[in-house]
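This part of the workshop introduces the protein records we will be handling. As an example, a complete record with its sequence and its structure tokens follows.
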Amino acid sequence: MGGVDGRGDRLSPRGRGLVGQRGADGAKAQAAEVPKRSIAVAIACGLVGMYLIPVVGLFVGFGAGLLASEYLRHRDFRSALKSSVEALKATGIGILVEFGMVCLAGSVWMIGVTAHFATR
């Protein structure tokens, strides 16, 4: 998934991870018919949760906010839960893709540092 940024340079593994994550998140969320408003509410609740509950508050707040927003939209708990789970799966896959690309970028950097100092 090689891409090019605005200057014509190749994207780094970190940049590729971000592009892949956004593509995976958006496509899965659209397939589950989760509106952007619900995602925005979930992000806001995640940020609030991050300050209220250290360490896990972001994830708890995001999930709770998404479920609450979807419940208000559907007025049916099962339907809201189903669409929320699909959106959370998409977000989880996106996070894993980004984490993998960050690990790859770190590995490439470490190999470069090792090669630089080994050849001195």
Observations:
- The first helix runs from residue 13 to 31.
- The mean pLDDT is 82.
- Residues 38 and 69 are 5 Å apart (CA to CA).
- The helical segments are 13-31, 36-52, 57-74, 77-118.
